[in-house]
Amino acid sequence: MSDPKIPAHVAIIMDGNGRWAKKRGLPRTAGHKKGAEVVEQILEDADHMGIRYLTVYAFSTENWLRPAMEVKALMNLLRTYMISSMEKCAKNNVSVRVIGDRSKLSADLQESIGNLEEATKNNTGMHFQIAINYGGRDEIVRAVKKLVAKARAGEITEEDVTEALIADCLDTAGLPDPDLLIRTCGEQRISNFLIWEGAYTEYYFTDTAWPDFTKEELQKAVDAFGNRERRYGGLTGGQS
Ligand code: IPE
Ligand code: IPE
Ligand code: MG
């Protein structure tokens, strides 16, 4: 059996790229570039630590509000990642899935996402999810639309609507809920990330900005998780 002290699924709100860059007198985009390098390292570190699922928040449905130049730089980084990580994922046996509404992304980015998912889908190692144009509320809206279509087609009735059916219509269908969610750079909020899936997730906040995040920081979060008592609304261990 897997060690309950090691979270099977870790989700990360990678925040603070802009502040990291500003502190160094660099453009915000320099922070995003360094942040993208850190993702690659943390993916490997998480794998070595026995984490089976890693989900990172790369671009939210609200991040379109940023200046066009910053959005463009972020999309370019994602574009590069989809292509450059192909070989590494094959070597490390990692499967990649993108969550979020990809229909709003450029056609070429959608294509390279599809290619990376397809090329890695049979890999049996770590599962790596990247949230792009992802919003928890938007994910639920899209799930409800799928259910309405099913009902219209006569495939389901009111009685069929359960938590499991809703979960099956989310982008995260088939994934276990996150056990641990880490947010970097001091903010203590969820910013529309995995709001359905995070119902019983343990949260961990650190002041470290994402570009400075390291394996040691990840280990600290995992250690803190190991000391938490998860009750899921029940009673403490041993009581009944
Ligand atoms: C996280 O860093 C990356 C994205 C949201 C795309 P930010 O860009 O939010 O950095 P801060 O929060 O402004 O420092
Ligand atoms: C959350 O960070 C989104 C990502 C990390 C991609 P934001 O920087 O967008 O969140 P807020 O605006 O501080 O809530
Ligand atoms: Mg931020």
Detail the topology: elements first, then pairings:
Elements: E1 9-13, H1 17-23, H2 28-48, E2 53-60, H3 68-92, E3 95-99, H4 107-120, E4 127-134, H5 136-152, H6 163-168, E5 180-183, E6 202-205, H7 215-226
Helix pairs in contact: 1-2, 2-3, 3-4
Bound molecules: 3-methylbut-3-enyl trihydrogen diphosphate (2 copies) and magnesium ion.
- Given as residue ranges, the uncertain stretches (5+ residues, pLDDT < 50) are none
User: What small molecules are bound in this structure?
Assistant: 3-methylbut-3-enyl trihydrogen diphosphate, magnesium ion
Structural class: alpha/beta
Note the gap between the termini.
24 Å
Provide the β-strand percentage band: 5-15%
The portion of residues assigned to helices is 40-55%
Query: What spatial order of strands do you see in the largest sheet?
Result: 3-4-2-1-5-6
Q: What's the level 1 CATH class?
A: Alpha Beta
The CATH homologous superfamily is named Decaprenyl diphosphate synthase-like
What does the main sheet amount to?
A: 6 strands, parallel
| Global Rg | 18 Å
Looking at the structure, the CATH topology is Undecaprenyl pyrophosphate synthetase
Count of DSSP helices?
7
What are the secondary-structure elements, in order, as H or E? EHHEHEHEHHEEH
Mass-distribution shape:
globular
The overall average pLDDT, rounded, is: 97
